Amino acid sequence: MAHYAFINSNNIVVEVISGKDEDDTSTLPDGYSSWEEYYESKREGLTCKRTSINTVANTHREGGTPFRGNYAGIGMTWDADNDVFLPQKLFDSWVLNTDDWQYNAPIDYPNDGNNYIWNENAYQTDTADPKTQGWELVE
Questions:
Q1: CB within 8 A of 39, min separation 6: which ones?
Q2: Tens of pLDDT along the chain (139 residues)?
């Protein structure tokens, strides 16, 4: 079984379905060269791309080859230039890591055993160069 994401004109994933395995071409209806093409024909105005449920953060959880960066989910973005699905960007300051196709804080998470949350306002108002504010201790 394979999974397929439907993407709107703004490159946002609006639906994910399970469908035919991409290698199962024996049952592919005439006139179609792939299951992506077939499923796309069933959703007017949407693009269809296969996605791998086993791929997260550009790592295949069963040791295989990662496929399209991340398993697609509703609200994620399709990046056609890089052929990957991107998670939602949680904060304006966070930057895309193209090694794992995840958005990361611009300051490393403190490694002191405590719990922190990101404070975007603290980061944005920090005038230091480089900025040092952003992670806020959860007490």
A1: 4, 6, 17, 19, 48
A2: 999 999 999 999 999 999 999 999 999 999 999 999 999 999 999 999 999 999 999 999 999 999 999 999 999 999 999 999 999 999 999 999 999 999 999 999 999 999 999 999 999 999 999 999 999 999 8
Q: Which two tokens stand for residue 93?
A: 């300051």
119, 134 contact by CB (below 8 A) = yes
DSSP character string of 90-122? -STT-EEETTTTEEE-SSPPP-SS--EEE-HHH
SS3 of residue 50 by DSSP:
strand
49: left (phi over 0), alpha (psi -120 to 50) or beta: beta
